[in-house]
Amino acid sequence: MQTDLQQQISSNILKILREKGLSQAELSRRIEMDPASLSKVINGEAQLKVNTFSKIATALGMSVVDLLTFPDHYVPIASGEQEPLEAILQIRLRKEKKNQILQLIFGEHNLEILNN
């Protein structure tokens, strides 16, 4: 009996094969697995091993994560690249303190513009 995850993986493999116009026989050839054995794995009659799962993902031109999350695609952040971060800080100050802070941040001349 297949677990929910195994059913999802099997379903994803079948959907991807249809989307790419590939047969199970072609997939079995690409991963060098007997077609009957692959059919048993996809139908839940045999256990899907991690190395077979990895070979299937590679043969389909996908990452293991993309195969798991199909049709969504995992898009990793490139190394050194960070997601944009937005932070809003609100501080309540008396008017004279507010002007001092704004002057410190924006300079004397820009303070007049900000106060208008």
Question: What keywords describe this structure?
Answer:
434 Repressor (Amino-terminal Domain); 0% strand; single chain; 116 residues; 7 helices; rod-shaped; mainly alpha
Explain what the structure shows:
The chain is mainly alpha-helical and 116 residues long. It has two domains: 4-69, 434 Repressor (Amino-terminal Domain); 86-116, no CATH class. Helix content is 59%, strand content 0%. α6 packs across α7 (108-115). It is rod-shaped.
Which helices and strands appear, and what pairs or packs with what?
Elements: H1 4-20, H2 24-30, H3 35-42, H4 50-59, H5 64-69, H6 95-106, H7 108-115
Question: Could you provide a short overview of the structure?
Answer:
With 116 residues, the chain is mostly helical. The chain has 2 domains: 66 residues, 434 Repressor (Amino-terminal Domain), CATH 1.10.260; 31 residues, no CATH class.
- Per DSSP, the total helix count is 7
Shape: rod-shaped
Distance between the termini: 71 Å
State the CATH superfamily name of the largest domain: lambda repressor-like DNA-binding domains
